[in-house]
């Protein structure tokens, strides 16, 4: 080794403390800083996108919980409302109520007389105000034959202008409400005949072509029914499968195949599950289209692999000593699993299941494939009824041209996200509460 | 006899089986329970399972097959005159000739579409909804509808009878078997294990179901459109006419523009997701303090938990207009359904996926390698770039492949933000369509389920399934190998 | 730490100058104290062996010498450690430069998953020790020769370093450390994963490396400490019990704990 000499053994001046090395070091630290900045930028990008997303949804969605209403003096002319004169609400001419609302509007603006002018004026009032008037009369049957002040929803355009969702300073041609109508609006406002009220319709109604009448009740019920089917099918099957694969299965070709298969199934695009549902459940077995039953079945298959994988992980986390102890006391393998291992793994399984259900809750594409984009104006009453679902409702509304549906879409998303947050919070609570250190 | 009653009866019989089995065991033991091989409840369960399982399987099987079998029996049992009469009133004259020519075959003379129409009419009649049926054919179809109702009630009663006798037989036989030496527990456990196996096979059945339904319908499609045209054709316009005599009745089914569009959007998505996801993962695992990690990771998880339909809405509400305005500001003409907008939003959606997979992969790189590098005087970024990333490369490649597969199969974002027009272009500012968009747009809306157009959906689905499957298998292999290396 | 009482490290042994020295070094892992105040000098061109029962803090001390402990979040170091008289925990001192001057070889061989050649030039490339291909070639040859590995691998320099045997991998790691041309090399039980022949090989190597480098080695093997080191430090439960010439420690220990340990009564 003596033939090795300089520069390695030259200790007169350490290379690492030389000026050249110092300079190089500065460059290296600059590179370091740059690289770190990339990381910060990447994270900032992801976080700010989430922030923008949530912010936009809040900004556009929050106003949907309020509805602009106008106060009109409606005369419930008994001859019009109840042409048969039976006094029984079932015999009312419901179609006539819109006319009553219009008359009340004309009365508030007596100077507006011409046909076209009156059409312009009607633009202030919701074209489905009659439906609200019917409900009002049903609740207060005594009003028939009287004249009362009633708060009625404004048209979508007025609603958006009044809530500031549409800028009233836009050029006239770019907004749904023209200058004359704005004038009417201002006049009513100055008379205190315009107010913003809580939009209870949003929670009590189902889909509609009119934003004032549209709500999420039907879709929410549809989603709940679907989820019930999903969990009833997927949870027992997945847990059984996980128990078998983790505790009983011999290591052979078949179980290996099952495992590979489960892993791959977890990554199959969800729309393909929709095609499966369409071809198998609907076309082959002739099950009812658009029904929560079929939707739930498709979603159950979709979340099956996720729950199986989570359940297996939970079972695996139970230490072997527990099994040995139970087996040592003369319990059979099945008893050991059912009495000791499974209960201990249950929190983990529940956590995995809730997360999987949250995933299923947001799934849209497979439900579209089996026709759950049905236009349902009333909540489904059973598992075989035509039904929609919350995420599908979001999709349907996002497609509608009326300005009012933009805020409804955002609001429906906010509701959907609230469900998701609640579910995930439950999962986290479970995980924290039952977290166990062996 | 609705099936719910049958099921209810079976449940009662099951409970009865449990009680009887248990009682028999206790009686046989004659006060000395210890002389039994198993605890009495196992004898009860043994009886109960034998009552329930065979019958309930039968019920499920019948539920699944009832529709197709009865439909087939009703339609094929129709008199040729009735079929002809219905056809005269219901199908276009152009198609009538073909039916007339083979009138002796009865319903066999009908095409699949016609058959479906006929069936819908009969089903509506049978359900008492004559208002949905062309009045001209109501009387012709009455017998068939009655036949359908008869068959339904007959089979339901038969099912009830068979199930109850099966259950009774099971009660009887299991009761006879129960004795002190009978190994009830082992028997019950064998049955339960069998059930567990069945459940774990459902995953396989799902795959088989997917493959079968896709392949089966695709084959029907390929009898109408050659495979080569589908895979290599450059024209996609699936607007087939409803009636054969309509002009322009043959659509074009060259799927290359769809594949290209899918790839374009997936590429844009990966251009966003790969760097952002990977760099975040690196920052979180190599730079961030525990506190920062504890904040950022849940934030990324929230991003991962947002439904794709929400991202789709985000794309049309915010990102697409933003990109269009930006384009306009620098004088570019950006389509309002540009591939760029859809791709970017999809990328944002995939970021947490990439970052959590990469995080796992990076954390699997042993600490000793980092120590070795730091010990030689490397900075963090040098260690990351020259030691950790090369060591983690296979795992990262696997993660990226999984992400690509995710991007290809994603539906809602593209359905909402990408276009419908099949343009063969690589311009990210133009509007393109994707495989999933076409599947959705063709299927949504009530379609007669037999045209080349609707069938093409399954061919697209098959391609989608095959491609994502290959990507997943390869990616999972790579990741698994990688893990084994550092275990 | 009270700086007033800290004097500039004085040579314990007049003839040599201290390359590194530690004064009152305390190390904490979170709340737990792993070292209770260590004073020791490390002389140039000498091998210092650290011995002591498991968990007594040898690795901890070794890692404070090139601030590898910085990578552990909960670890905190108090006291003074100098390299050529300069405080290495001085915030102005650069840790990257420090680690280039004080290299480290770990207990488990940890070659990078790259070729042998790339493993060796990794450090020199970072620190700009060479720029041209033939310079790198020279460094690779020199370092591998120094680590006694050249003859075994000279025909397979482009093969992955992970494909070598355990002993060869460890020598590769030594070569890798040497290639950076550090002033001090720290070795944490470099032979614990190796068989006796490979161990002998590395011991020989350490003896040769002493000519150019200052070496600190942690070992559990008394014979090894006796064979390779000039001075030995005995650690016990986070305390430095005794440090002195190896011969003296092994033949005539002053502390009975040292005696107990080297005669195998515990540890
Ligand atoms: N990363 C760490 N976090 C917390 N405590 C640690 C850490 N590393 C070491 N310790 C603790 O510090 C003490 C000294 O550990 P150290 O590794 O220095 O011992 P050692 O003398 O090298 O032992 P061995 O001979 O077994 O390698 C031990 O009690 C150990 O538990
Ligand atoms: Mg140690």
Automatic annotation (TrEMBL), chain A:
<keyword id="KW-0812">Transmembrane</keyword>
<dbReference type="GO" id="GO:0005315">
    <property type="term" value="F:phosphate transmembrane transporter activity"/>
</dbReference>
<dbReference type="InterPro" id="IPR000515">
    <property type="entry name" value="MetI-like"/>
</dbReference>
<dbReference type="Pfam" id="PF11812">
    <property type="entry name" value="DUF3333"/>
</dbReference>
<feature type="transmembrane region" description="Helical">
    <location>
        <begin position="408"/>
        <end position="430"/>
    </location>
</feature>
<feature type="transmembrane region" description="Helical">
    <location>
        <begin position="293"/>
        <end position="315"/>
    </location>
</feature>
<dbReference type="InterPro" id="IPR035906">
    <property type="entry name" value="MetI-like_sf"/>
</dbReference>
<dbReference type="GO" id="GO:0035435">
    <property type="term" value="P:phosphate ion transmembrane transport"/>
</dbReference>
<keyword id="KW-1003">Cell membrane</keyword>
<dbReference type="InterPro" id="IPR024573">
    <property type="entry name" value="DUF3333"/>
</dbReference>
<dbReference type="InterPro" id="IPR005672">
    <property type="entry name" value="Phosphate_PstA"/>
</dbReference>
<keyword id="KW-0472">Membrane</keyword>
<dbReference type="Pfam" id="PF00528">
    <property type="entry name" value="BPD_transp_1"/>
</dbReference>
<dbReference type="GO" id="GO:0005886">
    <property type="term" value="C:plasma membrane"/>
</dbReference>
<feature type="transmembrane region" description="Helical">
    <location>
        <begin position="216"/>
        <end position="245"/>
    </location>
</feature>
<protein>
    <recommendedName>
        <fullName>Phosphate transport system permease protein PstA</fullName>
    </recommendedName>
</protein>
<feature type="transmembrane region" description="Helical">
    <location>
        <begin position="35"/>
        <end position="58"/>
    </location>
</feature>
<feature type="transmembrane region" description="Helical">
    <location>
        <begin position="265"/>
        <end position="287"/>
    </location>
</feature>
<feature type="domain" description="ABC transmembrane type-1">
    <location>
        <begin position="220"/>
        <end position="427"/>
    </location>
</feature>
<comment type="similarity">
    <text>Belongs to the binding-protein-dependent transport system permease family. CysTW subfamily.</text>
</comment>
<feature type="transmembrane region" description="Helical">
    <location>
        <begin position="341"/>
        <end position="362"/>
    </location>
</feature>
<keyword id="KW-1133">Transmembrane helix</keyword>
UniProtKB/TrEMBL annotation, chain B:
<feature type="transmembrane region" description="Helical">
    <location>
        <begin position="335"/>
        <end position="354"/>
    </location>
</feature>
<comment type="function">
    <text>Part of the binding-protein-dependent transport system for phosphate; probably responsible for the translocation of the substrate across the membrane.</text>
</comment>
<comment type="similarity">
    <text>Belongs to the binding-protein-dependent transport system permease family. CysTW subfamily.</text>
</comment>
<protein>
    <recommendedName>
        <fullName>Phosphate transport system permease protein</fullName>
    </recommendedName>
</protein>
<feature type="transmembrane region" description="Helical">
    <location>
        <begin position="42"/>
        <end position="65"/>
    </location>
</feature>
<dbReference type="InterPro" id="IPR011864">
    <property type="entry name" value="Phosphate_PstC"/>
</dbReference>
<dbReference type="GO" id="GO:0005315">
    <property type="term" value="F:phosphate transmembrane transporter activity"/>
</dbReference>
<keyword id="KW-1133">Transmembrane helix</keyword>
<dbReference type="GO" id="GO:0005886">
    <property type="term" value="C:plasma membrane"/>
</dbReference>
<keyword id="KW-0813">Transport</keyword>
<keyword id="KW-0592">Phosphate transport</keyword>
<keyword id="KW-0812">Transmembrane</keyword>
<feature type="transmembrane region" description="Helical">
    <location>
        <begin position="157"/>
        <end position="174"/>
    </location>
</feature>
<keyword id="KW-1003">Cell membrane</keyword>
<feature type="transmembrane region" description="Helical">
    <location>
        <begin position="302"/>
        <end position="323"/>
    </location>
</feature>
<dbReference type="InterPro" id="IPR000515">
    <property type="entry name" value="MetI-like"/>
</dbReference>
<feature type="transmembrane region" description="Helical">
    <location>
        <begin position="258"/>
        <end position="282"/>
    </location>
</feature>
<keyword id="KW-0997">Cell inner membrane</keyword>
<dbReference type="InterPro" id="IPR022182">
    <property type="entry name" value="PstC_N"/>
</dbReference>
<dbReference type="Pfam" id="PF00528">
    <property type="entry name" value="BPD_transp_1"/>
</dbReference>
<feature type="transmembrane region" description="Helical">
    <location>
        <begin position="194"/>
        <end position="216"/>
    </location>
</feature>
<dbReference type="Pfam" id="PF12501">
    <property type="entry name" value="DUF3708"/>
</dbReference>
């Amino acid at each position: 080794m003596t033939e090795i000499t300089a520069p390695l053994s030259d200790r007169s001046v350490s290379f690492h403390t030389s000026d050249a090395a110092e300079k190089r070091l500065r460059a290296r630290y600059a590179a370091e800083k740059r690289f770190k900045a990339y990381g910060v930028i990447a994270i900032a990008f992801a976080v700010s996108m989430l922030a923008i997303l949530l912010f936009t949804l809040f900004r556009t969605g929050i106003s949907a919980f309020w509805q602009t209403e106008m106060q009109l003096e409606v005369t419930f002319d008994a001859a019009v409302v109840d042409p048969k004169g039976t006094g029984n609400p079932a015999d009312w001419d419901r179609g006539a109520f819109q006319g009553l609302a219009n008359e009340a509007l004309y009365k508030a603006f007596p100077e507006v007389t011409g046909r076209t002018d009156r059409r312009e004026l009607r633009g202030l009032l919701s074209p489905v105000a009659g439906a609200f008037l019917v409900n009002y009369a049903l609740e207060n049957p005594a009003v028939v034959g009287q004249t009362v002040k009633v708060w009625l929803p404004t048209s979508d355009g007025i609603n958006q202008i009044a809530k500031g969702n549409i800028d009233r300073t836009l050029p006239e041609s770019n907004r749904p409400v023209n200058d004359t109508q704005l004038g009417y609006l201002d006049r009513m406002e100055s008379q205190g005949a315009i107010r913003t009220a809580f939009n209870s319709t949003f929670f009590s109604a189902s889909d509609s072509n009119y934003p004032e009448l549209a709500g999420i009740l039907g879709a929410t019920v549809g989603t709940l029914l679907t989820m019930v089917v999903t969990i009833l099918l997927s949870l027992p099957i997945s847990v059984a499968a996980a128990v078998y694969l983790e505790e009983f299965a011999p290591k052979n070709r078949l179980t290996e195949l099952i495992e590979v298969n489960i892993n791959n199934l977890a990554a199959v695009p969800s729309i393909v599950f929709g095609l499966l549902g369409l071809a198998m459940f609907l076309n082959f077995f002739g099950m009812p289209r658009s029904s929560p039953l079929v939707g739930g079945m498709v979603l159950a298959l979709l979340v099956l692999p996720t729950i199986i994988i989570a359940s297996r992980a939970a079972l695996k986390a139970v230490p072997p000593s527990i099994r040995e102890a139970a087996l040592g006391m003369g319990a059979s393998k099945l008893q050991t699993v059912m009495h000791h291992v499974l209960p201990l793994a249950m929190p983990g399984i529940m956590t995995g299941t809730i997360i999987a259900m949250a995933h299923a809750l947001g799934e849209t594409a497979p439900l579209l494939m089996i026709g759950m984009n049905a236009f349902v104006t009333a909540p489904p009453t059973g598992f075989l009824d035509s039904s929609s679902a919350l995420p599908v409702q979001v999709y349907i509304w996002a497609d509608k041209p009326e300005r009012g549906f933009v805020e409804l879409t955002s609001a429906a998303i906010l509701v959907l996200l609230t469900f998701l947050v609640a579910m995930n919070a439950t999962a986290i609570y479970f995980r924290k509460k039952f977290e166990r250190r062996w | 006899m609705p099936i719910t009653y049958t099921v209810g009866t079976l449940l009662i019989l099951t409970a009865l089986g449990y009680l009887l089995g248990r009682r028999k065991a206790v009686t046989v033991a004659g006060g000395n329970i210890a002389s039994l091989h198993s605890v009495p409840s196992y004898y009860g369960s043994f009886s109960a399972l034998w009552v329930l399982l065979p019958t309930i399987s039968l019920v499920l099987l019948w539920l699944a097959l009832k529709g197709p079998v009865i439909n087939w029996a009703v339609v094929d049992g129709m008199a040729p005159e009735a079929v002809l009469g219905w056809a005269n009133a219901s199908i276009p004259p152009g198609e009538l000739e073909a039916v007339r020519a083979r009138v002796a075959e009865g319903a066999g003379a009908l095409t699949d579409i016609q058959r479906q129409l006929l069936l819908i009419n009969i089903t509506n009649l049978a359900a008492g909804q004559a208002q949905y049926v062309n009045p001209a054919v109501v009387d012709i179809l009455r017998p068939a509808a009655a036949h359908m109702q008869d068959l339904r009630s007959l089979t339901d009663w038969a099912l009830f009878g068979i199930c109850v006798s099966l259950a009774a037989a099971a009660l009887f036989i299991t009761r006879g078997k129960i004795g002190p030496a009978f190994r009830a527990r082992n028997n019950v456990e064998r049955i339960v294990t069998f059930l567990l196996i069945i459940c774990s096979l459902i995953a396989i059945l799902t795959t088989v179901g997917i493959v079968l339904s896709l392949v089966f319908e695709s084959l029907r499609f390929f009898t109408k459109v050659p495979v080569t045209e589908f895979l290599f054709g450059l024209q996609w316009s699936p607007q087939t006419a409803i009636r054969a005599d309509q002009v322009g009745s043959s659509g074009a089914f060259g799927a290359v523009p769809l594949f290209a569009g899918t790839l374009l959007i997936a590429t844009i998505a990966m251009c966003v997701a790969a760097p952002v996801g990977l760099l975040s993962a690196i920052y979180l695992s190599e730079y961030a303090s525990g506190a920062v990690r504890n904040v950022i990771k849940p934030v990324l998880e929230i991003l991962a938990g947002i439904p794709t339909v929400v991202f789709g809405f985000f794309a049309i509400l915010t990102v697409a207009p933003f990109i269009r305005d930006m384009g306009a500001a620098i004088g570019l003409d950006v389509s309002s359904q540009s591939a760029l907008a859809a791709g970017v939003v999809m990328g944002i959606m995939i970021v947490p996926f990439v970052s959590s997979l990469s995080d796992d992969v990076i954390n699997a790189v042993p600490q000793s390698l980092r120590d070795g590098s730091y010990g030689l005087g490397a900075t963090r970024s040098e260690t990351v770039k020259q030691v950790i990333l090369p060591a983690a490369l296979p795992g990262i490649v696997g993660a990226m492949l999984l992400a690509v597969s995710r991007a290809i199969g994603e539906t809602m974002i593209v359905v909402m933000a990408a276009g419908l027009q099949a343009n063969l272009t690589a311009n990210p500012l133009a509007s393109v369509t994707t495989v999933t968009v076409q599947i959705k747009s063709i299927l949504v809306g009530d379609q007669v389920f037999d045209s080349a157009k609707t069938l093409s959906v399954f061919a697209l689905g098959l391609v989608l399934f095959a491609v994502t499957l290959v990507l997943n298998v390869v990616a999972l292999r790579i990741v698994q190998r990688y893990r084994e290396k550092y275990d | 730490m009270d700086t007033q009482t800290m004097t500039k490290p004085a040579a314990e042994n007049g003839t040599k100058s201290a390359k590194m020295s530690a004064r009152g070094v305390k190390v904490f892992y979170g709340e737990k104290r792993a070292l209770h105040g260590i004073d020791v000098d490390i002389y140039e061109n000498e091998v210092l062996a650290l011995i002591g029962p498991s968990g007594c803090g040898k690795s901890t001390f070794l890692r404070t010498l090139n601030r590898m402990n910085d990578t552990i979040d909960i670890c905190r170091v108090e006291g003074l450690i100098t390299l050529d008289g300069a405080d290495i925990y001085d915030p102005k001192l650069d840790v990257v430069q420090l680690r280039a001057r004080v290299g480290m070889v770990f207990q488990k061989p940890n070659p990078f998953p790259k070729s042998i050649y790339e493993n060796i030039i990794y450090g020199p490339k970072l620190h700009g020790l060479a720029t041209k291909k033939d310079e790198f070639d020279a460094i690779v040859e020199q370092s591998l020769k120094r680590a006694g590995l050249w003859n075994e691998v000279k025909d397979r320099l482009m093969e992955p370093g992970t494909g070598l045997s355990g002993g060869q991998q460890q020598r590769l790691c030594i070569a890798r450390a040497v290639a950076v041309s550090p002033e001090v090399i720290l070795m944490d039980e470099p032979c614990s994963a190796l068989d006796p022949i490979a161990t002998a090989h590395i011991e020989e190597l350490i003896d040769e490396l002493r000519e150019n480098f200052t070496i600190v080695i942690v070992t559990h093997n008394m014979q090894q400490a006796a064979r390779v080191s000039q001075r030995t430090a005995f650690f016990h439960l986070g305390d430095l019990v005794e440090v002195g010439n190896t011969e003296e420690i092994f033949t005539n220990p002053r502390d009975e704990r040292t005696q107990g340990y080297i005669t195998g009564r515990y540890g």
